[in-house]
Design brief:
Order of helices and strands: HEEEHEEEEE
Strand content: over 45%
Pfam family, one: CreA
Protein name: CreA family protein
Number of strands: 8
Radius of gyration: 16 Å
Strand order of the largest sheet: 1-2-3-4
Structural class: mainly beta
Organism: Dongia rigui
Keywords: Signal
Largest sheet: 4 strands, antiparallel
Length: about 160
């Protein structure tokens, strides 16, 4: 966990220098439940976190994701599974702070390493102009093999 915090701090520093797109870290861990008991090391668990969209006021995404335990997980060396779920909601009047891309590629609004090397969890935002909704997609990248696991959530704009 400490390694993940250090890597996240480094990512924020680099993002602040303009080398990366505007990425956001979880504003708050909501909770966690253990899924696998390990006698002598930390348990595997499902973590629930909240992420606020940096370009859209009053949209919060709640993400549940698997986190590997054991000593390798505690030291940040284990690869977390690509299993997650997302629910995004308007928590107040929704206002966009800047231009939201309308192309088919969307925009990555959050990215976090889920292994020591080459694997990331990402949340992308898409704008469906016909229905006037924002679509959030959580997905995983991997250098060799991407993951087919994904989840979406939709927030209507008024």
């Amino acid at each position: 966990m400490r390694l993940l915090q250090l890597m996240s701090a480094a990512l924020l520093t680099v993002a602040g220098m303009g080398a990366l797109p505007n990425l956001v870290l979880a504003q708050q861990e909501i909770g966690a439940v253990s899924t696998t008991f390990r006698l002598m090391s930390p348990n595997d668990k499902v973590v629930i976190e909240r992420y606020d969209d940096p370009k859209v006021d009053n949209v919060s995404c709640y993400l549940s994701r698997a986190e590997t335990g054991g000593w390798s997980g505690a030291m940040g060396l284990a690869e977390d599974p690509s299993r997650f779920s997302i629910a995004c909601r308007a928590v107040g009047p929704v206002t966009m702070k800047g231009k939201i891309p309308t192309d088919k590629k969307g925009e990555v609004v959050f990215s976090e390493d889920t292994s020591i090397m080459f694997k990331e969890l990402r949340i992308s935002r898409f704008y469906d102009t016909q229905k006037n909704v924002l679509v959030y997609l959580v997905w995983s990248t991997k250098l060799i093999d991407g993951s087919p696991y994904n989840s979406i959530s939709v927030v209507p704009l008024n």
